[in-house]
From TrEMBL:
Signal peptide: none annotated. This is GNAT family N-acetyltransferase. It comes from Jeotgalibacillus haloalkalitolerans. It comes from the Bacteria. Coiled coil: none annotated. PROSITE patterns: GNAT. Residues 2-140 form the N-acetyltransferase domain. InterPro entries: Acyl_CoA_acyltransferase, GNAT_dom.
Amino acid sequence: MKKVVKASVDDLDQLVEIDSEVIGNTSRKDFIKNAIEAEACLIALENDEVAGYLIYDTHFFGCSFISMIIVSPAKRRKGFASLLMNHMVSHSETEKVFSSANRSNHDMQKVFEANGFVESGVIENLDEGDPEIVYFKSVKEKQ
């Protein structure tokens, strides 16, 4: 059974392990820990096993911003990113939810589009030669 819950500090090591599988190091441990402590980290569970996580904040011009969605490589293409996104949108504290993906990240772009997010702009110069595409979804469209 799949479900989404708020992460707790007890989940930190599992989240860092998944993150390390994806990026090859544990450099974001403090970032993940801070998100958990701020109650801004959601985890996707399958039979009580962590499959992935989402980190967000509400500081993007007064709107929610999903800053990270990470799914374990072994659990990809099974709907966990969508599960996390939809939970975030349906429980959003703000009327608008934004996120972004590099232009080279075609898989994530497809996930955004499949979940009703629309392109809302481009940010140049974050990653050299790989612009960031900003996505938007109105919480009113969540039904």
